[in-house]
Amino acid sequence: MKTIELEIRNPSGLHARPAALFVKTAAGFQSRVALQNVTRGTAPGNAKSILTVLANGVARGHIIRLSIDGEDEETAARALSEAVAAGLGEAIE
Known about the structure:
Blueprint: E1 2-7, H1 16-27, E2 32-37, E3 45-46, H2 50-55, E4 63-69, H3 73-85
Antiparallel strand pairs: 1-4, 2-3, 2-4
């Protein structure tokens, strides 16, 4: 199992459009991916579900924890880290 923590830097956090890109990226891997909003103390949930990602209420500056478990966990962790660092399709400041 691979666990990583990332800071969300999008101006509006993980609202619909960046959340959809996040879910699409996570869904591209066989590994199970769980997302937890560390800042708000939410329980881990399925990161391949748009409803779960939106329900976590991830705003700019929040820290998320991803727990990735499966045969492609290293590749998934790298891809999700890169997507978040790039702003998930939005310009970051």
